[in-house]
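User: Okay, second chain of the day. Same drill as before: sequence in, structure tokens out.
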Amino acid sequence: MDVSVLTIGEELLAGDIDNTNGTWLASALTARGVSVRRILTVPDDRDVIAERTRAHSGAFDAVIVTGGIGGTPDDVTMEAVADAFDRTLVASDLAIAHVQQRLAAVGESVPELDIDIEAEAAIPEGAKRLSNPEGLAPGCRLDNVYVLPGIPSEMRAMFETIAEEFTGEVTERVLYTVEPEANIVTDLTEARDRFEIRVGCYPDKDARHNRLKLTGADETALDDAAAWLLDTIDASETPVEREWDPDEEPTGGPE
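Assistant: Same drill. Structure tokens below.
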């Protein structure tokens, strides 16, 4: 299963906040065997969100859009996703009731909230509403596009309600080597091509080793690739350390 993640918000592009949602989703999806093929950050621009949602919906098995839902002026994600599928926004009685219930609960501690409940509850026509266990605005699923909140606690809680819909067969093997990256480029490239897997090399100066990540859907191929690399280069299945030689500073490598 190939998935794209669209993270929405001017604050992300300005560097005002870290894109923790993108990182968290990538980790959660990868753990489920899903291949995350894109993580794209776009501004709170209705046309841009609609265009990217439409394009990614056609290119990937699923798209997760996070951020820009709610009642503030820059919350245009629901409208944009509706535009992408030529739909209008509607607020079901059930969605309105959920927002009212959440408001009643929150109102005990924040009594001055003034919210357009119908606007808060609106999702694209024909979409499946996704409940928001931690917040007000619902998410939705429309075709293969999932719209989640941008507030991290709300996004994570909502994702857990749909996590079972994301499955895949991608798995990985991890090796470690003290060989300088520049010295093993040829071997890593051969492993990639011979066993038809993805190979990543990630230098860790603090740990004083390189981490080799082998990724693919064929577990036999991964096992064979790992065995071949263990025989071919100075590598192990557990971290090893040595003093780095400044003259051996690694650069480049296959992706």
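Residues 249-255 have pLDDT under 50 and may be disordered.

User: Thanks, on to the next one.
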